[in-house]
Amino acid sequence: FLFNFFFGGLFIYKDKVSIILLNWNGHEDTVECLESLKHVNYDFYDVYLVDNDSKKESVDYILNYLENDSYYSHSLVLKNQLYNYVKSDDVDILFIINDENSGFAGGNNVALNYILKTKLTDYVLLLNNDTIVSPDFIDGLISKFNESDDTGFVGIKHYYYHERNKLQTVGGGIIDLVHGEAMAVFDDTRDSFDFITGSCIFTSVDVLDEVGTMNEDFFMYWEDV
What we know:
Strand content: 25-35%
Strand order of the largest sheet: 5-6-4-3-7-13
């Protein structure tokens, strides 16, 4: 799914990235995340914001932000109406109201299933709503993903919110099958992982179509592993 624009006599093509955010009573974090996304230097993205049956005040807070924001254009749809909904290209944020708290896996799957059905994008990015992003992070994810045909998923370095030069994790981990443990990796020279940390998982729609969506048997934790 390629966007194009005319520049200096040439048509420039760029791939579309769809970012999935999950809100559960974390409206202030969600809005701060959306604000940080305004500053990324990759313009060809949209956002699927899934509310996972939050309290009314959390939904109202986000709606008030979207209705008064001049940067994003948005549309609101209930989960039970989603699969009859046709998203137009000019909708930057599709705000989906889930009718139950489906957990991390189930909440993200609401958007993932719609994306798989419509195929309106090239790449999918699961992003925690309590994050803020660097301006170049989408370019970095796309570049890393396309370094090798064998790459399925890409993560990104995480830094502490209040100590922004302090590394929290490099964005992936390894699994100890003998002891049944999953361990985050802190060595930023490592390039291959058993799993990508769920707070930022980047992949293509083609890979998603092949492997499927998240396992909803894991309501919260281990679903990324």
